[in-house]
Specification:
364 residues; mainly alpha; 77% helix
Length: 364
């Protein structure tokens, strides 16, 4: 039970706060505003790029399943407006969402990897966002190629009739929050966490500007804690929802129940994976893999990718693949590791979003 408890303690607050941010972004219309702004920036001719970029940004604090349910109607509405490229739009949504799901905190898999591999949270966010650009570009090119070769017509579904989609298209920009306030709940936690992490690294440089911040360093570290930063983002998001929809505290409290229930399920499942990882460590699997890697001369980055990929394909869950692989790899990380553990973090994350098939809930 120790693995279960430690995992829950490390991820529960972050996941709960992230679920609040995601729900409020959807309910307030902030997510719709971000998508529309990128559509204006890139133009309808490049609507797929706009959907990919907006999904990539919005999905940083929003879990994949929730993000897909949010963005799918927008992709359909965009297809109604343009009259084409439905498959491209949906694939762009999937591409943007699945990458951040495996590479950025506060998603449960990356949080677990941060805890297991002892990687700085801020570094993991920055590294994950930057490294994720590469598969995002490749994913867009592949989606475009598939869209050119395969026509998938837009069909009505029970949750999104054509009338509903036309209503989304017809919604006025004046009814949505501004772009700045829509992005703050996503950007602010990232900035707070990353700045605190950057200062920790810069401490040894002796730079004058680092020394000048010494008097407020405790405050910076406090607000840079991932839970505090996400709390600030969630608080701002709740205010945004209350103002945009004119909801009172009672209504807000009622609305926040379902997303927290969803977060609770995610926390329990991820914590169970932590218990599984603890059993793997206790069984000495990590040591056995380490000895095998030494005897075969395997690079740990390559080994972590292969292990995560095998686990991902075998049982379907990207989160479990990340959690289990990071638990196996941690005993191999010693003081003489010739590179930063962030490389292992990224390697496992890349493998975790590969080869989604029928045992993956996201596939369906």
């Amino acid at each position: 039970m120790e693995g279960f408890g430690k995992t829950a303690a490390g991820i529960a607050i972050s996941i709960g706060l992230a679920s609040i941010i995601g729900f409020c972004l959807m309910e307030s219309g902030a997510a719709d505003r971000v998508v529309r702004q990128f559509l204006k920036l890139f133009g309808e001719k490049n609507a797929g790029v706009a959907l990919l970029v907006s999904t990539y940004i919005l999905s940083i604090p929003i879990f994949f399943d929730t993000m897909f349910m949010l963005m799918a109607p927008l992709a359909k509405a965009l297809s109604v407006r343009t009259g084409k490229n439905y498959l491209l739009y949906v694939l762009c949504v999937c591409c943007g969402g699945v990458i951040t799901h495996s590479l950025t905190v506060p998603h449960p898999g990356p949080i677990a990897m941060v805890e297991n591999l002892k990687v700085d949270t801020g570094f993991s966010i920055i590294g994950g966002i930057i490294a994720g650009i590469i598969p995002a570009i490749i994913g867009y090119l592949i989606a475009s190629a598939i869209n050119r070769r395969q026509h998938v017509p837009l069909r009505e579904t029970p949750g999104a009739t054509l009338a509903d989609l036309e209503g989304i298209v017809a919604k006025k920009d004046s009814e949505l929050p501004g772009l700045g306030v829509s992005l703050v709940p996503v950007i602010l936690p990232i900035v707070l966490i990353s700045f605190s992490s950057f200062l920790k690294v810069a401490d040894g440089s002796g730079a004058a500007w680092v020394t000048s911040l010494k008097s407020i360093r405790e405050a910076i570290d406090f607000f840079g804690d991932k839970n505090i930063a996400l709390f600030i983002g969630a608080f701002f998001c709740i205010l945004l929802l209350a103002k945009s929809r004119n909801y009172d505290r009672v209504k807000i409290g009622q609305l926040l129940g379902p997303p927290l229930e969803t977060a609770g399920v995610i926390i329990l499942i991820t914590s169970a994976g932590g218990a599984f990882g603890g059993m793997i460590r206790s069984a000495g699997v990590g040591g056995a893999v380490d000895r095998m890697a030494d005897s075969m001369g395997l690079n740990l980055v390559f080994l972590s990718y292969v292990l995560a990929l095998i686990i991902r394909v075998a049982q379907g869950s990207a989160t479990v693949a990340m959690l289990t692989t990071s638990a196996i790899m941690f005993p191999m990380i010693g003081p003489d590791l010739p590179y930063h553990p962030l490389y292992l973090f990224l390697s496992i994350g890349f493998a975790a979003f590969a080869l989604s098939w029928m045992n993956d809930s996201g596939f369906w």
